Amino acid sequence: MHYNGSPQRWSERANGPLDSARIQRPFLWDRPLLLRGGRLVDPSQGIDLVGDLLVRDGTVCALAETVPPPTDALVIDATGLVVAPAFVDVHVHLRDPGYPEKETLETGAAAAAAGGFATVCCMPNTDPPLDTPERVRALVERARGLPVRIFPIGAISRGRRGDELADLAGMAEAGAVGFSDDGDSTRSAAVMWRALEASRALGRPIMVHCEDWTLAAGGAVHEGPVAQRLGLPGIPAAAEEIILARDLELARLTGGWLHVLHLTTARGLALVRRAKRDGVWVTVEVTPHHLLLTDEWVAGIRRFAGEDEVLDPGPCPDPNAKVNPPLRPETDALALRAGLRDETIDVVATDHAPHHERDKPADLERAAFGMIGLELALPLLLRLVRSGWLTLGELVDVLSCRPAALFGLPGGTLRPGSPADVTVFDPEVPWQVTRAALRSRSANTPLLGLTLHGRVCLTIVGGKVVYVDEAFAHRSARLGGWSDLPGYAVRSAPDG
Ligand SMILES: [Zn+2]
To answer: How many CB atoms within 10 Å of residue 214?
Structure first.
């Protein structure tokens, strides 16, 4: 992310009040919880069946076509809903410390829970940056007791300046699950070399934002016909691909673990494919927005990649469509989907990048890069299921099982005995993307005003109910299954 503008105080609440009532508190049931009659989708066990899931004492207890409810169980009707391992996001910006007007650990955790995520990994481009063991430890401490699991990513270089290696071993010891100078590439190839060497011993990835700053400098959007039409300075695809080629080569030379953040181009995909074939230790993520949106969205033309329908136009230009790396042409989005399907791309991550309205002026050259993602990932990816690009099982795999397994994070499975991190969602229900419908502190998304399909009903983390959709709570109460649920959704719940 590139920040323009200084941090604001808590008291400046132009993005709306930080409404504590909207932040549901974790609620630990002391009774077993039976989710009955849902479609259980868990690729980690090759499971896709209609049945019941029993949660007890914070762990998954049983799943089968029929699980008899223990006498003291709370039974929730999940008919017509999908029950899956909760989602895991290895790339979010929670802006904490330093930018509470954009997001905090608390509001970010609330947005994550509402998006179906149990676990998120947060980037170190905060103020101050997470570049020392002490700062990483402090974040781990502060994240304790929040509704979702938050794991910090430490900076690769001191101060994220790109010229001096940070204390990676110390930060790993303090709880960093990976290292990144995200927002920028690490300028020094020598620092990258040493970071990748260290990653081998630490078993943690070096997560790279690939962007040659001399080629990208001053650019606002993808360099191409749309940029020309709007008279905006472009960021060429080569800015990404040149640094990607450098870092893949460094990974090959060192044997270190390179994780490529937010891959966006077909040419970059080909570079990764070749490196994987050569045995380079590289993993790759893609964002929902680079799979679904194109650079036309910057011009307010709202048509999803691969679809014919043109939706209601957005602002032109739309500062909320300015993101780094930029939205690319449709051919790139379609190539990335193929890469996801053939597993050249390992996982989907949101790059949730909240910004205050003030940082998104209509003048695109002055607007900050970034868009929110946690609450929009599911409905966006469900479009790929409806159009046949992914199965529902594959969606759960790339958004939950694979990121958990790859990064050694909790969750990503409904195997009995594992932590009860569960997401229940309705894949069809329509809802309108509005500021009020979002729990993030920010609402910077080019999807504002559109109606999407698919919404999370319930998120459970370690057996604690951390999010309940209000409509679902009322439905449950009507069916007599869970009379406490509506009360939980509209009031704040008792402390867990
Ligand atoms: Zn980035």
So the answer is: 7
CA dihedral over 223, 224, 227, 233, signed as positive or negative: positive
- Compute, in angstroms, the gap from residue 450 CA to the centroid of ligand 1: 26
Predicted confidence (pLDDT) per residue in 420-446, tens digit = 999 999 999 999 999 999 999 999 999
Cβ partners under 8 Å of residue 17, min gap 6:
none
Q: How far apart are CA 296 and CA 290, in angstroms?
A: 12
* Residue 387: C-alpha distances to residues 296, 304, 319, 391 (Å): 20, 11, 28, 10
CA of 397 to the centre of ligand 1 (A): 23
Instruction: Express the helix, strand and coil content of the chain in percent, nearest 5 each.
Output: 30, 20, 45
Active site residue 351: yes
Query: Can you give the residue ranges of every domain in the chain?
Result: 86-409
Q: Are 272 and 249 in contact (CB under 8 A)?
A: no
Lookup: tokens for 229: 């039409």
Number of alpha carbons in the 13 Å side-chain half-sphere of residue 100 = 10
For ligand 1, the distance from its centroid to the CA atom of residue 128, given in whole angstroms, is 18
At residue 148, the pLDDT reads: 97
Helix 237-254, helix 189-202: angle, nearest 10: 50
pLDDT tens digits for 376-396?
999 999 999 999 999 999 999
CATH architecture of 86-409: Alpha-Beta Barrel (3.20)
Phi/psi for 111 (5° steps) reads: -65, -40
What does the block give as tokens for 62? 């049983």
Q: Which residue among the candidates 96, 346, 351, 397 is catalytic per the annotation?
A: 351
Beta carbons of 330 and 469 less than 8 angstroms apart: no
The answer for residues whose C-beta is within 8 angstroms of residue 309's C-beta and 6 or more apart is 303
Q: Is the pLDDT of residue 16 over 50?
A: no
Q: Is residue 8 over pLDDT 70?
A: no
Structure tokens at 410: 């909790």
Residues 401, 43: contact at Cβ < 8 Å? yes
Residues of the chain with pLDDT > 70: what percent?
90
pLDDT of residue 275: 98
Please give the distance, rounded to the nearest whole angstrom, from the Cα atom of residue 184 to the centre of ligand 1. Answer: 7
**Displacement of CA 336 from its chain's centroid (Å):** 17
pLDDT tens sequence across 279-302 = 999 999 999 999 999 999 999 999
What pairs with residue 419 in β-bridges?
59
What residues contact 6, with CB distance under 8 A and at least 6 apart? none
What would you report as the CA-atom Rg of the chain, rounded to the nearest whole angstrom?
Answer: 21
Handedness of CA 30, 32, 38, 41 (dihedral sign): positive
Helix (H) or strand (E) holding 467: strand 464-468
Query: Strand ranges (DSSP E) for 215-257?
Result: 221-222, 234-235
